[in-house]
Design goal:
- The chain is of the alpha/beta class.
- Helices cover 27% and strands 23% of the residues.
- The strands form four sheets. The chain has a ten-stranded mixed β-sheet.
- It is elongated, with a radius of gyration of 27 Å.
- The chain starts with 32 loop residues before the first strand and ends with a helix.
- Bound molecules: S-adenosylmethionine and iron/sulfur cluster (2 copies).
Length: 553
């Protein structure tokens, strides 16, 4: 639906003034500034332009009378195209477009986008002068804004199809810092100084390579069993290219995204792009971590690899992960851990994980012994995530029912088995973590202190010790402050970015790195406003809708 098909009444839902869900249909050249995607880009100063609004699949923003002004600097002379489409509730509306005071076009409303070419110079002021706007007696008495024209398209692009050349020395076009160590120091300094517009890149980057998996029969626990194929995506070369500065500057690069990162054809390329100081982190089914690929991964830097097994025996493994091969996986892990020991990489870490359910709970103690045999650093258990309810046939002809598997017919037996695993882990000195409450039966209260010891995450950066800012009001005295708006970004395989993986992708995507330079998105109005909210209240409104584990503690 086009904005022009939405009745010309006013909608003001500032809370939803974010990227519309379908804006990829409005893709324009890389390096362009699309004012329907970024509310306030830093390199184009906008006056007389209301927030981005949307209804259903349409998005628009109002130009406010008497004039909308777009001001920007260019490195040198460059022909710039102003693309716009608008309608207006005022009969006879015209827009006079002036560039540095000279009249360059007079436009009337229309569905088809108009293109106005201007000869850009060092300093550019574009005026859009409206002939009519809402003034007393008001056409829209309940809206104080002097609305004039409603834009369904408003963008600036280079006439030659290349990027707009904004000056690199301006306060809005920062050079990339490069080294992960220097970048993190700068990020910490900027946070300590109370900055909300940042030169530093996020030291922690989550880069989703794919939501797909090469396992023909999905693991019984996986939501791939329920997801429609068209919901999946994999990263493309152009996205990797755009993300390259982020990858090489990241101190921690998390390749989590719901699929099997190692099946992406760009996995090796991404590893190649990392710096020696980068620690790469991902979960894997491990079948693709062949000795050759392990050597490539180890040749680069440090890695935190969590192998998902969900079983300690081949029989249970076959039920839980029917497309894997238990013996090959154990060989892959053994090769990887032994090479890692040879190389002596103190920042690297290897673990095995099990998602505990009714079918595999009997394997938990044996899982500790297996970890020891494989030479990994620790074991991570968790229960099944909430929210799924699929039923699948297993390879041994049985039925695996998500709801029943979550419930545990005998919670006391479950707790005995977990306690047994804990005692074994203590005896052999194997760190054991349980994400979420480990005990489910009547003794859960009495076992609280053991549960607390299992909750301690080994090898976790205590950022609180190094990240400090007098400007940051704490959300709660007992909670660790959250540094995410200064530290992290999440890049989906589509190139969409958001601040935090706990934020709803459909609501809180900031923009797309294929369409926009990352630094412009990183310092877009939404990000700056969120950082201000963290300084003022320790959290931003977008965090409340989906509180993170950190907030729940
Ligand atoms: C979705 S997988 C993707 C990475 C990789 N393919 C793997 O299996 O490790 C990421 C992690 O989520 C776990 N997982 C998958 N489905 C789950 C569920 N329903 N509840 C809890 N954890 C789950 C997997 O065991 C794995 O450790
Ligand atoms: S290997 Fe990972 S992504 Fe693939 S089906 Fe299993 S849990 Fe899902
Ligand atoms: S959801 Fe939680 S982790 Fe994410 S930014 Fe908000 S407070 Fe931080």
């Amino acid at each position: 639906m086009l904005a022009s098909e939405v009745p010309l009444q006013l909608y003001r839902n500032k809370a939803e003034a974010v990227r519309p869900a379908d804006d990829r249909t409005e893709t324009i050249d890389g390096g362009a500034v699309d004012l329907l995607k970024i509310y306030k880009p830093l390199d184009v100063h906008c006056l007389g332009l209301a927030v981005i609004e949307r209804k259903h699949r349409a998005s628009w923003r109002w130009g406010l009378g008497p004039r909308t002004t777009l001001t920007f600097r260019l490195e040198d002379q460059q022909d710039v195209v102003l693309r716009l489409a608008f309608d207006s509730p005022f009969a006879g509306q015209t827009i006079q477009v002036r560039h540095n005071r000279a009249l360059v076009a007079t436009l009337t409303p229309g569905k088809a986008p108009a293109e106005v070419v201007i000869h850009g110079v060092g300093h550019n002021v574009l005026h859009l002068d409206y002939s009519h706007w809402d003034k007393p007696p008001k056409l829209f008495p309940n809206d104080s804004r002097p609305v004039a024209a409603r834009f369904s398209r408003l963008a600036l692009a280079s006439a030659d199809g290349g990027p707009l050349r904004f000056p690199t020395d301006s306060t809005v076009a920062f050079p990339y810092v490069g080294s992960p160590i220097e970048n993190e120091l700068l990020a910490r300094r900027e946070y300590a100084e109370g900055k909300t517009v940042l030169r530093s890149l996020p030291p922690v980057v989550t880069l989703g390579l794919t939501t797909r998996c090469n396992f023909q029969i999905p693991c019984v626990i996986c939501d791939i069993n329920t997801r429609p194929e068209e919901a999946d995506s994999s990263i493309e070369a152009v996205t990797i290219e755009k993300a390259a500065p982020l990858i090489s500057t990241a101190k921690r690069l998390l390749l989590h995204c719901g699929g099997e990162a190692m099946m992406s054809k760009y996995f090796d390329k991404v590893i190649e792009l990392t710096s020696p100081e980068t620690t790469v982190q991902f979960n894997t089914h491990g079948m693709l971590l062949t000795p050759k690929r392990a050597d490539r991964l180890l040749a680069k830097g440090s890695a935190i690899v969590s192998f998902s097994l969900d079983a300690a025996t081949p029989e249970i493994y076959r039920i839980m992960r029917p497309s894997g091969h238990f013996e090959t996986l154990l060989d892959n892990i053994k090769y990887y851990t032994s090479k890692l020991k040879e190389l002596g990489r103190p920042q690297s870490h290897t673990r095995i994980n099990m998602t505990v359910c009714e079918t595999n709970v009997k394997d938990v103690a044996a899982f500790i012994d297996l970890a020891h045999e494989l030479g990994v650093d620790d074991v991570v258990f968790s229960h099944l995530n909430e929210g799924l309810e699929h039923v699948v046939e297993t390879v041994d002809g049985g039925i695996w029912d998500y709801t029943k598997e979550c419930q545990f017919a005998d919670p006391e037996r479950h707790d005995d088995l977990v306690l047994n695993a804990w005692q074994r882990a203590q005896r052999i000195g194997m760190p054991m973590v349980f994400v979420g409450p480990p005990f489910l039966g009547s003794r859960a209260g009495a076992l609280k202190s053991i549960a607390a010891q299992m909750a301690a995450v080994p090898f976790h950066d205590r950022d609180e010790e190094t990240w400090r800012s007098a400007h940051h009001k704490r959300y709660h005295p007992d909670l660790m402050p959250c540094f995410t708006p200064w530290q992290e970004t999440v890049v989906q395989p589509t190139g969409d970015i958001r601040m935090c993986c706990f934020h709803d992708e459909s609501k809180f995507t900031i923009g797309n790195i294929v369409q926009n330079d990352f630094l412009r998105l990183w310092n877009a109005e939404e990000m700056v406003t969120a950082r201000r909210a963290f300084f003022g209240h320790g959290v931003a409104p977008r965090c409340h809708a989906n509180p993170c584990q950190r907030c729940r503690h």
